[in-house]
Amino acid sequence: MTILGNGVLTLSCGPAACTIVPRAGGALAGFWWERNGKRFDWLRPAPPRAIADSDAQQMACFPLVPYASRIRDGRFLFCGREVVEPPPVPEARHALHGHGWRRDWLIRERGEDRLVLEYRHEAAAWPWAYRARQTVTLTAAALVLGLEVENLSEDLMPAGLGFHPSFPRRPGAVVSAATSGLWLADAECLPTEKTAVPPAWDLAAGRSLADLALDHVFTGWNGRAVIAWPEEGARLALEAGHPLLSFLAVETRPAEDSFCLGPVSHCADAINLAREGVPDTGLRVLAPGARRSARLMLRPHWG
Question: For the chain, which end, N or C, has fewer CB atoms within 10 Å of the first or last residue's CB respectively?
Fold first, then answer.
């Protein structure tokens, strides 16, 4: 492992390398291969300014804990308790992506090709204490991300997990993923209705990224997706190693130079929808002392 002066840690194994910034929400700043003397980025590399500012949203990938996506108005009721969860910035309306991506993570273990980070949350506006642990393991064939949350409080806690990886939007990119449903969303990306996947958004057989303008959560994901860049003869397989991650958040805004395929454990605003009796939101509850974990493998291929 290499530790750079700006707090960036580098793991390497054969042609593969990745960088992690513990103080920026435990986020990855890059994942690439060196091939024929050139660097090929499998994840969108973080710009230097994002690293200097500890801006996790501009990183290559960041962890989502203890929930993914938005909570409407940052408010919900759970077990008779009203919770007001602040948004990430004052001008925002909704709570977003939990706490982990906005906090420093401590290094618990480190080696040339493996890193373990930990974040401990003390009860505050989110009235449950918990511990999150993230494991980054790099081999010559794959990058494996593990994420775990443990309820340290004496009460039941709603808990979700996920990953927010961003990928380079290269010409000709094709995305493939088999899903069974979709949450339609309003202008604020909050769910309005669960429906079958419209034919124009069906990714099962592969869709050109140029034809997609999505910011939605798909349901019934089988845990596998593939991104292909035919012009480079490269493709990247995403494999969720745990059935917990059965939702896939897809963001493909045409004006941006990257896109996201984010494996998550629930839909947006799951905690409010579940309280209203909406089924299949993915909401899960952790008992005191219980843990929940998820894993994501990124496996590159050439040819």
Answer: C
